[in-house]
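Encode chain A's predicted structure.
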Amino acid sequence: MEIMYLLLVLISMLCCLFGVLYFYLTQVYVYWKKRGVPFLEPSFPVGNALEMILAKRTTGDVYRDFYRKLSGYKFAGLYQIHRPVLLLMDPDLIKNILIRDFGHFQDHGFPFDETVDPLGANLFMLNGDKWKTLRSKLSPTFTSGRLKMMFQLLVECGQELQKCFAEPANREDILDIREVLARFTTDVIASFAFGIQCNCLSNPDAEFRRWGRKWVEPSFNQKLRDILYFMMPRLAIALGIGNIPYDVSKFFMKVAYETVEYHERNNVTRKDFMQLLIQLKNQGCLDADNQDNGNGQTPLPIHAMLAYYTFCERISGASIHVLSAGFETSAATMSFSLYELALNPGIQDRLRDEIDTVMKNHGGSVTYEGIQEMKYLDKIISETLRKYPPLPTLHRECTKRYEIPETNVVLEKGIQVVIPTLGIHYDPQYFPKPEVFDPERFSEEEKNKRHHYTYLPFGEGPRACI
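Encoded structure for chain A:
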């Protein structure tokens, strides 16, 4: 009898909780209707996010379908479980959000906590003044002059890649090109961002490669972590669960700390990103930026940044951001480019002719200036990024009340805005026969025919890429 009573109490409590949840979500799911915004009908209790939660398809593909279903509208409403989301489809409105009215949408809106996720304190994740401060410091490290200064590091890694291909080519072996290129980009980023040589091409099980693989390759724990952050990010943070696994964070922080310590103890000067970060740490600005930087901004003293991070965490966060932004995206883009070239031998032959001609003009060497002259290569990479964008969706969070131009729709602070990059890139209105790989879409003539904000592989505006 007592057990039956407890069961009845438990069932009653669950029914009450279900009723409260149902009432709450039914109130949420009229948010866009009340504001006169077209929307996709949500489903209890996940809104429009079921496929993303179940990971049946990628987020980019899901939003591409949303884009198709809502074709004809400039914007429309969706529901990410209990959170209203605005989907942008009009290029002019996208331009407003990313550029003209950037002050209303400067944050990505991804939840994280620096105490739980110290390496999350990077340019991609930070918001508000913290992002502005870090960006003002790190932006000078990505100028064309400094990238040119570090170009030799890339050439050296390229020579190792050539050696890696030589023997299998002579034997006519089959290679897992995706894995080889992942090892190549790991070598490049390790050298560029951390100032170390990890030799992943010659040693596939190098420690740096193993930890990089552990970070980016999906696992059951990572999937659970992603679902929790997607559904209840505040709970994840309260439970002390970070976006980046603790052991991965610990390894890269250790690498950054030991590298900086070695550089400073032995007075090592190397033309890489880590050296520039050390210079920021010691001087508060880079050598070329000791005075006004030309934009009316005097470099901030280093203590302004230390108010947000310890030095080791800041260096590690910046370096791991370069690793995450460059390692996986670069390997994927190169792999997809080679895949498309294999399917299109005519394009491949034309590219080979261009490379041979440019190399001959530069004495058979790979040079920074030579790469700039490879216009057809640039078109191929651009078309690859159209078909396979590294960021299939772009996210912004409304940071203050915003009225959408030429409408009466007002977005409240905290509303998430999503730009379906993949959907736009496959819209035949902008890119006829979008499934076809056609580098000539990126001739100057063709680019001038279409709206600039219909091609957004890395976003646009002050937060482009980062």
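The chain has a mean pLDDT of 85.
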